[in-house]
Design goal:
This is Transglutaminase-like domain-containing protein. It is a single chain. The protein is mostly beta strands and 785 residues long. It contains 11 helices and 59 strands. It has 6 domains: 126 residues, Immunoglobulins (Immunoglobulin-like, Sandwich), CATH 2.60.40; 107 residues, Sandwich (Immunoglobulin-like), CATH 2.60.40.10; 100 residues, Immunoglobulins (Immunoglobulin-like, Sandwich); 107 residues, Immunoglobulin-like (Sandwich); 154 residues, Roll (C8orf32 fold); 114 residues, Neuraminidase (6 Propeller), CATH 2.120.10.30. A hairpin with an 8-residue loop joins strand 9 and strand 10.
């Protein structure tokens, strides 16, 4: 639609504030700041038969509601477009409303009511505009209803926005050229295009936000060119088209934004707490170490990654560790929720642990003297100091600095040190209170007197508090079980040890986790003791895994053999795979277990095994060495089952100070067994302490009985019978009831590797090395291919 020269500067300002053809006015319900900031008509001219859309923003409130009407002046007909008020909307984000009916030739009025989201009024302000719908005229009009020719809707700061005109533009004969005006919906400001009309439009956004692109068009044959030549200041166009785009901030990697040390000074023999927040992500997880400059060693104080937490909420790390005099480094890794990296960023904080010195130090380790940890907006927060503060003689005075962890902004205490500090929060959120303290006997007073710009303290204490809205009902939502993201096997092992739920991003890790849960559910139950569970898991791993000896011997081991994937999915692994799998399964069964990884086993090569906690005591468990090499199928040894430090140290070496001690020898009775078979709460085994005779024993070792006075090997059991190779009589196959009755010979051949399968006994002939099966009564001997 054309504009002529006289007074057009005023009309242009109106256009660039409210993009409408025609007049407009405000009607205020009362004096109120909430009103329409921008009304954008999707395209112009508006031609009979067109659909039309309108884009609305408001000012004077963060969130608003709109109600929109359209009056057809010709028909004297009023249509409500929005069906009552809209839901609460962000006032600065363009809200698009489109009448369902197409426009007809004639005049219309657009009426917009707007009010703040909680307003109970009919409206806070009313905006009225006039629209004119015209006939199609190919000789004198340009039709701009097509889409803006742009590649996408979302850009980043600094990325060039290129516009190649308006798609399917038609009407007055071309070629067509364009100008681009840009409206910033958040600041309510315009970026005006002062260049001439042209084919290619470009704009580079310098900050994130939502923008309305207004593309003016002109035809080469327009009569308006003459007016602009005579009056270059004229701002004319044949039509326009709008497009809303979003500009995001340049992608930033998550960063640790705050590391708070719980108290200072850190005195020898004390423990410490750390509070961590991050920015540029919503959810994060942390992994932290303490590195000692004195010993040149590091300690993982989070035991792998933490659960996912809100980045702007202080995450507390409280290591069970005493510090001693010297320098330390706190190393914190952070990664955002969807990261597949080992870590996205890291932060290093330096610590200094000092000697106790009552004359020159103030000890601030005890709690802050504050009534509670949750306050309401407007409620006074009073801090009476630090409880049981000691060291340098008092009295003690304080300053209170406050960190808003959501905004990252500090409220600094510019007052003098005083006995009691107070603060009244004005908005909800999570805050870190940083309480500085001074003793009246401190030498720092003289320093500050000489130089008032110096901000000094003798010590500090941190406390995290929560501020809730004034109308909060006080009902706390029960926190969900902590969960963490897992990208690799070590992270899975740590997460299960920490009792976290997991989100797994790796297919192999996911397969292991699913298989491990199924195994534990199938072979253990809540009625079993920890020892019974441990025996069942040990038996499963040894029976279902073969040591990957050939690949080990040939130097062709894959990564899988070092993980639980090799053990549980492939069925082949080396010691690291065995140990990690035992830990994973034991942890899933609720049993504490650790992996000992050492540089040398029997002074030859690296090795890994487990330390397991049973009935409050730690024991060594080496499932790798309890699995025969080459693999012997169902054969399970217990030679390295629940050994003490002294017992296992005969052929294992480790750094003892890094692990709990193991001194209990109560499971020696298991370690001497051969060919042991666990059946319920009983073990049937060859007893080398009594000439390899067949014995049974309760799992706790309290009951033991000889079943037959014969040398027995290769035991197998069913519900009633024990089957064994009688080496006191040619190694022939025998069976005997579990109550030691009914000892019966079943064949007359040397029998090894006995296995029960349904109604059959499977075995190998020790002479011809062939496999056979026989009925449980000794009949129907058959060769098995």
């Amino acid at each position: 639609m054309r504009k002529t020269g006289k007074g057009f500067k005023v009309l242009l300002l109106i256009f660039l504030t409210i993009i409408l053809c025609g007049n407009f006015k405000y009607v205020m319900a009362v004096e109120n700041a909430v009103k329409i900031a921008f009304v954008g008509v999707d395209h112009s001219p508006l031609i009979a038969g067109d659909s039309e859309s309108f884009y609305l923003t408001a000012m004077g409130a963060k969130r608003v509601k709109y109600r929109v009407f359209l009056i057809d002046a010709n028909m004297n007909k009023k249509i409500e477009i929005t069906s009552g008020y809209t839901e609460s909307l962000d006032a600065s984000k363009p809200y698009m409303v489109t009448p369902s009916e197409k426009f007809k030739l004639g005049k219309y009025k657009l009426i917009i009511w707007v009010k703040e989201e909680k307003s109970v009024k009919n409206y806070d302000s009313e905006y009225i505009a006039s629209l004119n719908c015209v006939n199609r005229d190919d000789n004198n009009r340009v039709y701009s209803a097509g889409d803006v020719d742009i590649s996408k809707d979302v850009y980043t700061v600094g990325e060039k926005v290129t516009i190649n005109g308006i798609k399917n533009i038609s009407g007055m004969k071309g070629p067509y050229t364009y100008k681009l005006h840009v409206y910033d919906t958040e600041t309510n400001e315009w970026i005006l295009d002062n260049k001439g009309f042209r084919n290619n439009l470009e704009w580079v956004p310098t900050k994130p936000g939502t923008y309305v692109l207004v593309v003016w068009d002109m035809s080469y044959n327009s009569t308006l060119w003459k007016t602009m030549i005579k009056s270059p200041e004229s701002k004319l166009y044949e039509g326009w088209k709008l497009k809303v785009i979003t500009v995001k901030d340049t992608e930033k990697s998550v960063q640790v934004s705050f590391v708070g040390v719980g108290h200072s000074p850190l005195v020898a023999g004390e423990k410490e707490k750390f509070y961590i927040t991050s920015k540029y992500a919503k959810k994060v997880q942390y992994r932290a170490w303490i590195y000692s400059d004195n010993t040149k060693t590091s300690e993982d104080i989070t035991n792998g990654y933490t659960p996912l937490v809100d980045a702007d909420k202080p995450y507390e790390i409280s290591p069970d560790k005493k510090f001693w005099v010297g320098k330390y480094r706190l190393v914190v890794r952070v990664r955002e929720e969807k990261s597949l990296k080992e870590y996205d960023n890291y932060y290093v904080s330096y610590l200094n642990c000092v000697e106790k010195n009552d004359s020159n130090r103030v000890y601030t380790i005890n709690d802050m003297d504050i009534e509670k940890s949750t306050f309401k907006v407007g409620e006074k927060v009073t801090v009476g100091g630090i409880k049981d503060i000691s060291g340098m003689a008092g009295p003690y005075t304080y300053k209170l600095h406050i960190l808003n962890t959501t905004t990252g902004k500090w409220t600094l205490d510019s007052k003098e040190y005083r006995g009691k500090t107070e603060w009244i929060p004005t908005e909800p959120g999570t805050y870190v209170l940083d309480l500085w303290t001074m003793s009246s006997n401190s030498t720092l007073w003289q320093v500050m007197k000489s130089d008032p710009s110096r901000k000094l303290y003798e010590g500090w204490k941190l406390k995290v508090i929560k501020v809730v809205p004034e109308n909060d009902d006080g009902n706390e939502v029960e926190p969900a079980r902590p969960y963490t993201v897992v990208n690799e096997f070590k992270e899975l092992y740590a997460a299960i040890e920490n009792k976290y739920d997991v989100i797994i991003n790796d297919a192999k890790v996911a397969a292991v986790y699913d298989k491990a849960k199924d195994i534990v559910n199938n072979i253990t139950n809540n009625n079993m003791s920890d020892l019974e569970k441990e025996l069942a898991i040990h038996q499963y791993v040894v029976k279902n895994t073969a040591y990957d000896y050939e690949n080990y011997k040939n130097g062709t081991l894959t990564k899988d053999s070092y993980t639980a994937y090799g053990t549980l999915i492939i069925g082949k692994a080396v010691c690291q795979g065995y140990a990690d799998t035992m830990k994973l399964l034991l942890n899933l069964a609720g049993i504490e277990a650790k992996v000992l990884e050492v540089d040398a086993y029997a002074k030859k090569e690296p090795h890994a095994w487990n330390l397991v906690k049973i009935d409050g005591e730690y024991y060594h468990l080496d499932a790798t060495l309890d699995d025969p090499v080459p693999d012997e199928g169902d054969k399970v040894a217990y030679t390295y089952f629940n050994l003490s430090d002294e017992k296992i140290s005969k052929d294992h070496e480790w750094v003892r100070k890094n692990y709990p001690i193991s001194v209990n020898e109560k499971f020696q009775y298991l370690q001497s067994m051969k060919h042991a078979v666990i059946d319920g709460t009983w073990i049937y085994f060859t007893n080398p302490l009594n000439e390899d005779k067949l014995y049974k024993m309760s799992l706790d070792g309290k009951i033991q009985a000889k079943l037959v006075d014969s040398v027995s090997w290769f035991e197998a059991v069913d519900e009633q019978w024990i089957y064994y190779s009688n080496y006191s009589n040619g190694g022939f196959l025998y069976k005997i009831r579990k109550d030691a009755l009914g000892n019966t010979k079943l064949n007359n051949e040397w029998t090894v590797d006995i296995e029960v399968q349904g109604d059959w006994i499977l075995y190998k002939n020790g002479k011809d090395n062939k496999n056979y099966k026989i009925r449980k009564d000794g009949s129907e001997r058959q060769l098995v291919n």
